[in-house]
Structures are given as structure tokens and as C-alpha cells.
Amino acid sequence: MAVRFLYTLALSLLLPFAFVWMFWRTLRQTGHADKLGERFGSSPYLPRNEIIWLHGASMGEVRAMAPLVKALHREYPKHPLLVTSFTGSGRTQAQALFGAQALVAQLPYDLPFCVNRWLKCVSPVMGIVMETEIWPNLFAACTRRQIPLLLVSARLSERGLERFRRVPRLVRAALAQVTAIAAQTAADAEGFQQLGAPQDRLSVMGNLKFDVQLPDTLKQEGRSLRAKLFGKAMVMVAGSTREGEEAQVLTAYRSLLDKHPDCVLVLAPRHPERTNSVAELIKGQGHVCRRRSAGELPLKPGEVLLLDTLGELTHFYAAGHVAFVGGSLVPVGGHNLLEPAAMGLPVLAGPNLDNVRDVAEMLKDAGGLIVVNDAHNLGEAFVWLVGNPGTRQHIGQAAQQTVIANRGALDKALKLIGLVLARK
């Protein structure tokens, strides 16, 4: 209790700065101001003891929960769903994905007044938190209200584990409030145990991202998009790139054009607020930059399409021939490798893959992932894959089969949720 009091005190002192920062960040990400009422716990009163609440930190976690949201909507029609995210871009993504199936909101600040006010209004029958989110005051408030709390598809990167180890008593107390932790891997479960999670509440369920079911129409939509925008050009898609990576991708693209000029590049920065600076970078390196938000004007070979819209990356993977996944040539830890793999694309990534290490190892062992060290290696890989269509297809098939072979986490998650709901 004392350590949580100190945490709350520190958070209260930082709140004015967090308020300004989150307001500015959401405005840059979405073009809209932060939902201040939601941040401070405002919510309409909802059907008591019926809401199933799901939370994902940001866009990646929100996309990862898609199969679970769809399954819960189907299996528990009497339970309204509420999806929250902490970031503005995550909220926008949730609205786009689940607007017809769930209520969508931003998570309030982790202060007692905010979370108590919010839970009084929402009163969920249970809470499901995706991957790695630990909020001490929110978790404690759920326990006081006897709201079961599950960590699903839970994971711990090495960096995350080190960060939580700096406040061991606070994290141990928060994890004690959790009803069950369904970890992605045995190593993740071991990490949570090291942080103080009770062993009898730990299990291994796998990675829910493997269970993402792509719409049957997606491949056809991708082919139509390719024909409309790219014609017969080879399409390289660089998704979820971070600061410091776009320059390397553009250097690699220049190397590709020297050997295969009939190619185009789709560049999708991870954070939409960076698109203006990325556009300047593209032009500064001598490329013609087309913005997706400007419409559907066909690209000419050698041009770059800047994906400055939300929710379309999956469709552009479906339209592409080769995918590079960002956050991996810079020390971020990597982003979702499974979306392009599920499309049957050969997947390229840099060596910084701590956030997705288990998925990366599986894809690499199966021959579906090529790890490159720098812009030079990435350019060589582009040239090799474009020049060898048979090899490109074989690597893409290996990636896709790895996704198919590792599905099953969704069934385990639904079984766990069913057991918890049966106790209510």
C-alpha cells in the first residue's frame, strides 16, 4: 500500500506534464484532441455486470486483439464489449476495427479518482488486458470491486523485464491483483514469475497474433489495389518504420532501382505524426513522394507511396511482393512480423527483434524471415528477392505456413475466459 501511495504521489506530480504531452501526442497522431473526459474517468453508465472490457496499449495490441473481440462478440452476444487503448492512435484503430462490435474509449489516467470514477460507470464483469500493461491503481480498484482481471497473450521483452525490476514491490503487488496470466511462451511465464506473479495463476497460451484471420476478400482487394496503383511494378512494402529507419530503407530502395528500375516502394511510418518529416526525407533523397491521403493516382516506377493513413497497412501488404518490418534496424525491438507472413510475403527485418523474438525465431527457422543488418544488406536482399521469383515465393510460403501451424491461442483464451465468467 505504501509503495502504491508513493507511485500515486509521483504520478500526481507528473500529471500536468503528462496531460500536455498526451494532448499534444494525440493531436499529432490523429488530428483530434485527446479525450480529456475519458482520461479523467468520464463514461456513460453502462449495463452493470455485463460489460466485458478489453484493453490494448496502442495500435499493435489493438490489432492483435481482433480475433478475440470477434470471437467474444460471437460467443457472448449478451455481453456488450468495451475496448480501450491508452493512445489516441490506438483508440482510432479500435474504432475502425470494432466500431460495429464494441464500444471504444481511452483508458483513464492511473490515478485513484480517475479509475474509481471510470469503474463505477463501466462496472465490467471482467477485464482482459493484452500483452504487457501493468497499472497498479487500476488493478487494485478492480480487485476491490471483485472484477476478475486477465493478462492475455502476455509477454515480457528483456527491456520490459529490466524496467519492471526497478520497482519490484510495486509490480509484485499489481500482479497479485491479476486473476490469471496467460503468457505467450514459457520464457514469458518465467519472467512474470520472477516479477512476483503467483505460479498457480500462470499458464502458456501462445501468441494471439497467430490467430488473426484475414478476410477472404483481402487477397482480391490487394490485387485490385496493386493493379490500380502500381500496375506491373514490383512492390516493396516497409511497414511500421521508426525514426532512423526510413533513410536506410530509402538507401536500400535506391540500390534496388539501380538493378531493377521497375519497382515502387510503400513506406508506412509507425507513428502518423511523423509523416511530414518522412515526406521531406523522401524528397531530399531525390524520390517522387506520393501521399496515400491525396488519393489513388497511379505511381510510376521509382516513386514512393507514403502511407499517411491509419488502418490500411494490411491491405498494402496484400498488394505487395516483399515486406520489411520496422522497429528492427534501430534499437526498438521490432514490430508485427505476422501480418505480412500471413499474406505469404517473404519477410525482412533488422537484427533488433527483442519484442518479437519468439515469432522471429520461428519464422527464421522455417525459412520465412531474412534478417538484415543494415541498409546495404537490405538493398542486397531486395535485389535478390526481386531477381529470383521462385525463391521469393518459396520464402513467402514458408512464412505463411509458420503462421498457420502456430494457431490455437484463441481457443485457449476463450476457454480461460469461459471459466472465469462461469464463476461470476
Structural overview:
- There is one protein chain.
- The chain is built from 19 helices and 14 strands.
- Helix 6 crosses helix 7 and helix 12 runs parallel beside helix 17.
- The mean pLDDT is 92.
- It has two domains: 192 residues, 3-Deoxy-D-manno-octulosonic-acid transferase, N-terminal domain (Rossmann fold, 3-Layer(aba) Sandwich), CATH 3.40.50.11720; 188 residues, 3-Layer(aba) Sandwich (Rossmann fold).
- The chain has 424 residues and is an alpha/beta fold.
- Helix content is 49%, strand content 15%.
- The strands form two sheets. It has a seven-stranded parallel β-sheet, with helices on both faces. Strands 10-11-9-8-12-13-14 form a seven-stranded parallel β-sheet, sandwiched between helices.
Shape: globular
Name the beta content range.
Answer: 5-15%
CATH architecture of the largest domain: 3-Layer(aba) Sandwich
Can you tell me the number of structural domains?
A: 2
Q: For the CA atoms, what is the radius of gyration?
A: 22 Å
Q: Class by helix and strand content? A: alpha/beta
Query: How many strands in all?
Result: 14
Which CATH first-tier class of the largest domain would you pick? Alpha Beta
Assigned CATH superfamily of the largest domain: 3-Deoxy-D-manno-octulosonic-acid transferase, N-terminal domain
Measured between the Cα atoms of the first and last residue, the distance is: 27 Å
User: Helix amount, in percent?
Assistant: 40-55%
CATH topology category name of the largest domain: Rossmann fold
Helix count equals 19
Unreliable stretches, pLDDT < 50, 5 or more residues?
none
| Order of strands, widest sheet | 3-2-1-4-5-6-7
The main pleated sheet reads as: 7 strands, parallel
Mean pLDDT: 92
